[in-house]
Design brief:
The protein is of the alpha+beta class and 326 residues long. The chain is 40% helix and 8% strand. Strands 2-1-3-4 form a four-stranded mixed beta sheet. Helix 3 runs antiparallel to helix 4, helix 3 runs parallel beside helix 5 and helix 7 runs parallel beside helix 8. It is elongated and about 135 Å long.
């Protein structure tokens, strides 16, 4: 098979292209500029060929007659004055407004929390519990508010010298006074410092029952300072717990009961409601007992102040000094 010579192929290709170009452009005027109508027709054709934007995520424009909708505040201003949020509150903040009831205090706490002042909001939630005499629904709302805010709140008192001093006193049979028990009681006492937000400092002591005492369990009481200290009632377990974890659980349970009973007896505060079955007693100590209640509890076990010294009466005879007096 013979190949076609390039001398024949090249002229044929050039001729084919030239004929196609001549047939396609022989009636086109390259010298005269296009009219405006022709250009506009080309623009319209180009615009129609471009796909439009998706309207899936577009927001319809408001009619000219409508004004933009401005969202209203989440909550109306409460009945109780929230105070100046830029000033540090006292631990007893809003106590003077507790007589307005739990609903008004909940409105206040919610308003302050929504406006971004958790420290003041926590105090208002605590006032629901300790001074407002809440019903069950109001109490549950306060529990939830305190559970949201208390874990991130700093210690109210960071100076150990300024804390009230108390002592956990545990009494057990001689055979139960082990180093492990002593360490457990001390750990609970140390933990109470953070639970009370640094307001109360607890020491600890493990004592033995007297010889011949048939008691085989564990007893707990909280003792105040001084030579003749004030003391709470006594919490008792008839049998020693089998493990230190159970000892810890029972100590926290007993502490809650002792605090609630002492407050009911010695203060005008609303006594804390006991935790339900299965609820962690340690959590109940900071969720159900306000920081102000802890302070009042500690004050109830402090020694009374010393009597004021008698005032000296100045002798006044009414006699005018004479020359002999000089």
């Amino acid at each position: 098979m013979r190949r076609v010579s390039l001398l024949i192929v090249i002229p044929l290709v050039i001729a084919t292209v030239a004929i196609a170009w001549w047939r396609g452009t022989r009636r086109i005027d390259f010298m005269t500029p296009p009219s405006e109508a022709s250009l506009e027709a080309v623009r319209d054709q180009t615009r129609n060929s471009v796909p439009g934007r998706s309207k899936l995520f577009s927001t319809p424009a408001l009619p000219d007659s409508e004004e933009p909708v401005i969202p209203e505040p989440l909550r109306e201003r409460p009945e109780i004055d929230p105070g100046d949020p830029t000033k540090p509150p006292t631990l007893s903040a809003y106590a003077e407004d507790a007589g307005k009831g739990g609903a008004a205090m909940i409105q206040l706490a919610s308003y302050i929390e929504d406006n971004g002042y958790p420290a003041r909001a926590l105090l208002a939630w605590e006032r629901v519990l300790d001074l407002c005499k809440p019903d069950a629904a109001q109490r549950d709302a306060a529990f939830q508010g305190i559970q949201r805010l208390r874990p991130t709140a700093p210690l109210w008192n960071v100076d150990p010298i300024g804390a009230k001093r108390l002592k956990l006193e545990v009494t057990v049979p001689p055979k139960a006074t082990t180093p492990e028990l002593t360490a457990t009681v001390k750990a609970v006492a140390d933990d109470l410092e953070s639970i009370t937000s640094g307001l109360v400092k607890f020491d600890s002591a493990v004592l033995m029952t007297k010889k011949g005492n048939p008691f085989k369990g564990l007893s707990l009481k909280i003792v105040g300072p001084g030579d003749k200290p004030a003391v709470t009632g006594t919490f008792q377990l008839e049998q020693m717990p089998e493990s230190q974890d159970i000892v810890t659980y029972q100590l926290f349970s007993g502490i809650f009961r002792l605090v609630a009973a002492q407050m009911a007896e010695t203060t005008a505060f609303t006594p804390p409601v006991a935790p339900s079955n299965g609820e962690d007693p340690r959590t109940a100590l900071w969720q159900r007992i306000s920081r102000l209640s802890w302070l009042e509890f500690a004050k109830s076990l402090q020694p009374p102040p010393p009597p004021a010294p008698p005032k000296e009466e100045k002798e006044n005879t009414g006699r005018k000094p004479s020359g002999r007096d000089h």
